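Now read these lines:
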Amino acid sequence: MSYGQGMNLRQLRYVVATADHGTMTSAAQALYVAQPALSRAVRELERELGVELFARSGRGVELTAAGEQVVRQARVALDAVEAIEGLSAARTGGRGAELRIATTSSLEPELTGRLIPRFARDQQAVRVRVVRCDGRDAVAAALRAGRADLALTDLPVPGDLAAHPFEQREVVLISPPSVRLREPVPPAALDGMRLVLPARGSARRAEIDALLARIGATPVAAVESDERGSWLGWVRAGMGSLLWYRNQVDGAEGLAVRSFMPPITRMIGLVHAHRQLPPVARDFLAFAKETAREARDQHARPAQREHH
């Protein structure tokens, strides 16, 4: 078999994931990439190698004999790349390094108020710079252009970027106490509801509009403003309700904070371009994954106690 000039680590990761998950759809979901992008990358690698890697079936895909050989070698190659990057991280230790993290305005408090301070306690020599972006597309552009090493953003992202799921966020409805609603709230109740919304044209408004379009609801804009510090004040004044994220709800005492059923959620993750990460970026990625695991464990323990 002849190796094409375009073979890359992204294609190898996609092929290994497809072999592990049995379908391209499941592999794409696990990697948080679009399924067509994954399928296209696998087909391109098959063309470059001149062999069929997977035999398609009604229930999914199965490795061909050539595919088994390629996947076996791909695992070796990916392990070697990770080991080499690990040697680089161990040699430099991140001393005096700068880490650039891109994010959107709605997720910036997550970085500056939670993740970066904890990371900085153990990595005091690292300078962390936040690259503020106006929406997910701008985040992707910053990574591609090399203006940021990592990004905290909504998933999924385009297939040319690597995604590491971080946390699933719950969207809640914050209302004046006088607003009577079924609890939990059916998403359809948002149709015609008076809402306090970010200003039109802003990245935050684009997030909310996409969420509303997904559930098929058209609320009434009672207030449209990017003065985030005033949103809860307008809710207290009875001007409308507010859609926001449960983990970012501070100062909502006296207001009704309600969940939706079915829940309205979004997955956020750490994202980077498919190239070798600087050691300090690898350290931050490992730290963020451990932070997410700790949070999941903390949430699981009360649930386990309830069952017992």
